[in-house]
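Input chain follows. Return structure tokens only.
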Amino acid sequence: MSIFLVGVHNLLRWLILISLLASLYLALTGWLRRKPFSGRTRKTWLFTLIFAHCTLLLGLFQVLFGRFGILSSKLPEGINVMKDRFYRFYWIEHPLSMILAIILITLAYRVAKKPIPDEKKFRIAFWYFLIALLVILAAIPWPFREGIGRPFIPGFS
């Protein structure tokens, strides 16, 4: 079960990254070209929000009850969370960074609902999406990160 949830969490990671790039593109082109805000843009931002929140729920389950979850496993004898790179990343850095990114994505989507000029809507959303993307990219356990890296596609290392 845990392997399956990690796989779904990973799949959603790619969906978030793709939809986040699309949202960024729509926000930037809308801002720079002074386009009117459209239903297509709102739907793209909504899907980004949905993917992010679904991933958050799976991630919270993993961090609490997964194979190395806070509530389902104990720290090895003599290990301090803040001094151990693996546990610090998976128990603290990754969850907090992703929660921050999801808050930013949620704020960006909320801008779509506000009765403000479209140019301002696009500009604010662009910056929220950009910062969220940078936080996500920094907090993903990429395969090249020593000690915490995971394969691009779990099960295919």
